[in-house]
Structures are given as structure tokens and as C-alpha cells.
């Protein structure tokens, strides 16, 4: 699979079936649509091409500055590759992109992707002032030689709720990683390089890997989690703390993982943490001894849970 940031770099060798969307998080609703796109592309001997956007249009249009993303562009592309997509184009969305006309945008897709089919949601619209709705696209497709398939909104449900990226953001803010796991079909994960912290964990017998997580990606609510830590082709059990470390009067939130049974220097290494279970909320302890006793219990709880699901 190829992951591109410019349409001009595509250079396809066969026609493309294209779908367009942000697909942040790639939850089960997204997965259902992508599976249909890939199957149709295979049947037609086309490339399955996903055109997505970064920054997220919400971030640009609403001026969002807080953590908002469920996936980095690279995580999203890797997940789409696992789903069988042949090409991902992460299109830069800014004010200039917002003002491109629907005809100019479609012409770019035709020129650079050799687009023969376009699959969009039933309420889809593209281009300046959303002029490129489904009716417009179908008429333009007849003129330009591509087909348009309007797909009913994919509303995957879990229990009584509709799966959506916005609701997943709310669940993560609550620390509800169990429900998020169900809605994504996988554990929620963040990535980051291990950077040097204050090394206080090492002094109390629990060295941690302090992750420099992308500042725009959501992290679960403050608390302690059982996680898998993946790096350099290895997978390790971990107990992870997210928060400001109130026992030490901390002010800046950190993501710190204590890898169980592992004590090597991994500064500068890229680590992925998948959040499997929330163990407890953030707590302030009356002294180091109480904190150490709780961390010991957290480590036992994390190991017990991770062993039960491995």
C-alpha cells in the first residue's frame, strides 16, 4: 500500500475506486464501509483508494486547539492497509482547500488517481459551499466518465448507541476504554518516543517510560491502565499512569508506562501503548510508602488482567 500526502504523487497503473472521508479512529462503522469499498474494487480490478484529510476539517473550521484526534495520519493509514486498501491519500485541509470548487477537486481526482468510481455517503457534499452533492457528482460523472455510488450512512450500533467518533472521544474522556475497545474492534492506542522525565519512578523501584504523545491526540482520562507496550518487534505488559502525579504536586500531565519485568534503557524508542483496562482513577497518597504499595497492587492487577486476555 502507498500512503501519499499529495495527489500528484499517486501515479496509478490501473483505475481507482475512490472513497472520501476523515475516518478518524476507523471505528466499526468506518470498517463496514471500507470493507465494501475494498470488495468492490477487487471485483472491478481497480485500486481501492481512500482520500482522507489532515488537519481534521473540524479543527480548521471550528478552531479546535484541545486534543481531538483518535488516530495520527500514520496510524490511520496503517489501519487502512490492514483492511486491504491499496492507496491512502492524506489531503492537506486548510482554508485554501476549503475554497476549491467541486469540479476542480473532482478533476484532480480524475487526473491523478485515474478515478473510475466514487463512493460517498448519501449526505456527502464536497467543494466550496458544499456544491458537490450526490446529484451534482452523478451528473458530472456522466459527463466525465466515472460512476458515483451513494452509500447509506453506516450506523454500526453497540447496545443502544450508534458508534461514532464524537462519542468515542467522550468515552475516552470518561476513561471508558472497555466500551471504546468494543466500538473500535481493538484497544485504543497512542504512540510516542520515550523521553527523559524526572526519573522519580526509578528512585522508588518503578522505572517508567515517559511517552511524548502527539499533543493533538486524545489520551484517556487521568488514571491507571493495564496496557500492552509494543516496540522494536517486542510486546510487553505495562501499567500506565496518565495524569499530573498529585502525590508529588505535579502540574503537567504525563503518560508514563512501567513495563513489567523489563528494565532497559529505551530512550528515543517509539512505543505504542494500547489501553486494555482501566484499573483506577488518579489518586493523591499520604506519602511515598502508600504510593509504592498501590503501585505494587496496580502491577499485580495489570499482570493478572493481561494474562487473562493474552
From TrEMBL:
<keyword id="KW-0288">FMN</keyword>
<keyword id="KW-0285">Flavoprotein</keyword>
<keyword id="KW-0511">Multifunctional enzyme</keyword>
<comment type="pathway">
    <text>Cofactor biosynthesis; FAD biosynthesis; FAD from FMN: step 1/1.</text>
</comment>
<comment type="pathway">
    <text>Cofactor biosynthesis; FMN biosynthesis; FMN from riboflavin (ATP route): step 1/1.</text>
</comment>
<keyword id="KW-0067">ATP-binding</keyword>
<dbReference type="GO" id="GO:0003919">
    <property type="term" value="F:FMN adenylyltransferase activity"/>
</dbReference>
<dbReference type="InterPro" id="IPR015865">
    <property type="entry name" value="Riboflavin_kinase_bac/euk"/>
</dbReference>
<keyword id="KW-0548">Nucleotidyltransferase</keyword>
<dbReference type="InterPro" id="IPR014729">
    <property type="entry name" value="Rossmann-like_a/b/a_fold"/>
</dbReference>
<feature type="domain" description="Riboflavin kinase">
    <location>
        <begin position="183"/>
        <end position="307"/>
    </location>
</feature>
<dbReference type="Pfam" id="PF01687">
    <property type="entry name" value="Flavokinase"/>
</dbReference>
<dbReference type="InterPro" id="IPR002606">
    <property type="entry name" value="Riboflavin_kinase_bac"/>
</dbReference>
<dbReference type="GO" id="GO:0008531">
    <property type="term" value="F:riboflavin kinase activity"/>
</dbReference>
<dbReference type="InterPro" id="IPR015864">
    <property type="entry name" value="FAD_synthase"/>
</dbReference>
<dbReference type="GO" id="GO:0009231">
    <property type="term" value="P:riboflavin biosynthetic process"/>
</dbReference>
<keyword id="KW-0418">Kinase</keyword>
<keyword id="KW-0274">FAD</keyword>
<keyword id="KW-0808">Transferase</keyword>
<keyword id="KW-0547">Nucleotide-binding</keyword>
<dbReference type="Pfam" id="PF06574">
    <property type="entry name" value="FAD_syn"/>
</dbReference>
<dbReference type="InterPro" id="IPR023465">
    <property type="entry name" value="Riboflavin_kinase_dom_sf"/>
</dbReference>
<dbReference type="GO" id="GO:0006747">
    <property type="term" value="P:FAD biosynthetic process"/>
</dbReference>
<comment type="similarity">
    <text>Belongs to the ribF family.</text>
</comment>
<dbReference type="GO" id="GO:0009398">
    <property type="term" value="P:FMN biosynthetic process"/>
</dbReference>
<dbReference type="GO" id="GO:0005524">
    <property type="term" value="F:ATP binding"/>
</dbReference>
<dbReference type="InterPro" id="IPR023468">
    <property type="entry name" value="Riboflavin_kinase"/>
</dbReference>
<protein>
    <recommendedName>
        <fullName>Riboflavin biosynthesis protein</fullName>
        <ecNumber>2.7.1.26</ecNumber>
        <ecNumber>2.7.7.2</ecNumber>
    </recommendedName>
</protein>
<comment type="function">
    <text>Catalyzes the phosphorylation of riboflavin to FMN followed by the adenylation of FMN to FAD.</text>
</comment>
Amino acid at each position: 500500500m502507498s500512503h501519499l500526502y499529495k495527489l500528484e504523487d499517486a501515479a496509478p497503473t490501473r483505475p481507482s475506486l475512490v472513497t472520501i472521508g476523515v475516518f478518524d479512529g476507523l471505528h466499526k462503522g468506518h470498517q463496514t464501509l471500507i470493507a465494501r469499498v475494498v470488495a468492490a474494487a477487487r471485483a472491478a480490478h481497480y485500486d481501492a483508494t481512500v482520500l482522507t484529510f489532515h488537519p481534521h476539517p473540524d479543527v480548521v473550521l471550528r478552531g479546535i486547539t484541545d486534543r481531538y484526534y483518535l488516530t495520527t495520519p500514520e496510524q490511520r493509514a496503517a489501519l487502512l492497509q490492514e483492511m486491504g486498501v491499496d492507496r491512502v491519500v492524506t489531503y492537506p485541509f486548510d482554508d485554501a482547500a476549503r475554497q476549491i470548487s467541486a469540479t476542480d477537486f473532482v478533476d484532480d481526482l480524475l487526473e491523478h488517481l485515474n478515478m473510475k468510481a466514487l463512493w460517498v455517503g448519501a449526505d456527502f457534499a464536497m467543494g466550496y459551499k458544499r456544491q458537490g452533492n450526490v446529484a451534482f457528482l452523478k451528473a458530472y460523472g456522466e459527463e466525465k466518465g466515472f460512476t458515483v455510488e451513494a452509500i447509506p450512512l453506516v450506523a454500526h450500533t453497540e447496545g443502544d448507541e450508534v458508534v461514532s467518533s464524537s462519542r468515542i472521544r467522550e468515552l475516552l474522556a470518561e476513561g471508558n476504554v472497555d466500551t471504546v475497545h468494543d466500538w473500535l474492534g481493538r484497544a485504543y492506542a497512542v504512540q510516542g518516543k520515550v523521553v527523559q522525565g524526572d526519573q522519580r519512578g526509578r528512585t522508588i523501584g518503578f522505572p517508567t517510560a515517559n511517552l511524548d504523545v502527539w499533543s493533538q491526540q486524545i489520551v484517556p482520562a487521568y488514571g491507571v491502565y493495564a496496557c500492552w507496550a509494543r516496540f522494536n518487534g517486542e510486546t510487553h505488559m505495562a501499567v500506565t499512569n496518565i495524569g499530573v502525579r498529585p502525590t508529588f504536586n505535579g502540574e503537567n500531565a504525563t503518560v508514563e508506562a512501567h513495563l513489567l519485568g523489563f528494565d532497559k534503557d529505551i530512550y528515543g524508542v517509539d512505543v505504542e501503548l494500547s489501553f486494555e483496562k482501566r484499573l483506577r482513577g488518579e489518586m493523591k497518597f499520604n506519602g511515598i510508602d502508600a504510593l509504592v504499595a498501590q503501585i505494587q497492587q496496580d502491577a499485580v492487577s495489570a499482570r493478572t488482567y493481561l494474562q487473562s486476555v493474552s
